[in-house]
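Take a sample.
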Amino acid sequence: MNIPNSLTVLRILLIPVMVAVFYMPFEGHLLAAAGIFAVAAVTDWFDGYLARRLGQMTPFGAFLDPVADKLMVAVALVLLVERHNDLLFTLAACVIIGREIVVSALREWMAELGKRTSVAVSMIGKVKTGFQMVSIVVLLAVDAQRDGSEILALGVLLLYIAAALTIWSMWQYLRAAQQVLAEDPSQ
């Protein structure tokens, strides 16, 4: 297995570790869970960079990398929804997770049509991912009962920005798919 694929597998293996640490009753467990998520998020960027730089892009890596990302984010958001128990927070998490499912299915469908590049990752998707990852790290690290409300407010604000960017990026993907369908309505 090449280095980028190994990093992707590591990211998947870190998910249950993050969950276990999140619930462990020791001082600093939330900060440790946030650190694990942050390491996984950095490996997401790093494995893509290495795959391109070392010429080690594989079909397996192309499949597994987005799966690892979506699993990592969805699991972290579920942990956070449980802790924050708030309608708006839950809706933001649902928007983010729902968009990932819709866009993954859309990419699969476009690949079947031979038009996968029409729904390639966009810049707004990358910006959304940045806000999303930072917000999750902040929100995992903050104990709402003990820590300052300013840090918690920042994490929540970043999550809401990520959710808004999520809707915008999903709209862009759906418009791109609509253009492909307009060119060939038999699809």
About this structure: The mean pLDDT is 88. The two ends are 37 Å apart (CA to CA). The CA atoms of residues 99 and 126 lie 14 Å apart. The helical segments are 3-23, 29-54, 59-84, 87-112, 123-141, 149-183.
